[in-house]
Amino acid sequence: MPTFPLDSRRSTGQALLVWGLLVVAANLRPSLTGVGPLLDRVQADLELAPAVAGLLSTLPLLAFAAVSPMVPRLAARWGPERLLWGALVVLTLGIAVRWVPTAIGLFAGTVLIGAGIAVGNVLLPSLIKRDFPLKVGLLTSAYATVMGAVAAVASGVAVPISQVAPGGWYTALGCWIVLALVAVVLWFPQVRTSRRPASEAIRGHRLPWGSALAWAVTAFMGLQSLGFYVVVTWLPQVFQDSGVNAVAAGWLLFVFQAVAVLTSLAVPAALRWARDQRAVATVSSVVLLVGYLGLLVAPGWALLWSVVLGLGGGACLVLALAFLSLRAKDATMAGALSAMAQSIGYLLAAAGPVIFGLLHSVSSGWHAPIILMCGAATGQVIVAMVAGRGTVSPADGQAPHRSTGLC
User: Fold this and answer.
1) pLDDT digits over 131-168, tens only?
2) Domain assignment present for 273
3) Alpha carbon distances (Å) from 373 to 39, 162, 285, 305
């Protein structure tokens, strides 16, 4: 059997790890973003009330919030590679269950999908911090770009697939099982080479509830997530009510997502020359604020505000993900910080579209809900000045009170 130099084997292993991380990232959004364009057909075929149909968008976010705090303890016990592989299996199972043409299968599969994605959301920043500590910005941007690009494609092809494929919208939602299976296979070598957790790692860090910096990172994650899910849920309707037809409004949402993907590619360069991330995060949040103010005062300039929101949103997403690694001292703390930020953050994100829609109904217009988003963006500008610098101390996760069992 031929032998290879150690450096060559190490390089091959790292390349396989990077590819595995990117394919995992590609699975973290398409099963979610493909639902919105099909929601009216799903509602009609299964005879769902509007509020019940809306749960298809809310349930995954609630699953993120519920599962995220448990991930660091599970990862320390089983190893992050094994846990992530198991999450991919759960995600695949969820897509398969959702393919069953019943309301129970649809909702049960959505919960499983949300649980599987929650684990990936928490573990990717931790794995990047552990294995690529000098390339956090670059790899975070890469996986955010892949995640955003596949999400945009999923929302764009959902309706065409449902129109031509046997099974209609069931197949449009279920076809993503192919990508999930690819991730299961490609990640399996990492399971075989997984390192056994040390006993001190199993004890791990509890979530850093006592850290002001951790709360700033959490607030930044939550506010940018709230903005993203409000935009993808309601922006087309806002544009339609300002005179844009439905087809054009759908394309404007695609423009928002495409610009966000392109912007995410530019963030690593900004991170390299910046001493810290306060200025980049603050400017990006201000750009978002400008986009919301534009919607408020000149909603007819739809294309401009789609681009502006994409510029700010794409940068803020990469920064929010990068903070989970950059603000952590080590991979264990990155996992704990990621769990805290994503559990609270996605609770906030789940409430955003509901409150936005409620304000629209109560006020019979879009001014009140858009003013709410201006307030959220202003809050994001403030927390960006704190979240962009410093390190969360392990002591902040070791409060003297009795453990709750959540890591």
Assistant:
1) 888 888 788 888 888 988 898 888 878 888 888 888 88
2) yes
3) 24, 33, 12, 14
DSSP 204-252: -PPP-TT-HHHHHHHHHHHHHHHHHHHHHHHHHHHHHHTT--HHHHHHH
What pLDDT, in 10s, does the model give residues 311-356? 999 999 989 988 988 888 888 888 889 889 989 988 888 888 888 8
Q: How many CA atoms lie within 13 A of 42 on its CB side?
A: 31
Residue 329 lies in domain: 6-397
Of residues 209, 217, 204, the one with CA closest to residue 72: 204
Q: Is residue 25 part of a domain?
A: yes
pTM of the model: 0.80
Count of domains for the chain: 1
Q: Counting beta carbons within 10 angstroms of the beta carbon of residue 374, is it exposed (0 to 12), middle (13 to 18) or buried (19 or more)?
A: middle
CATH number at residue 372: 1.20.1250.20
In-domain check, residue 386? yes
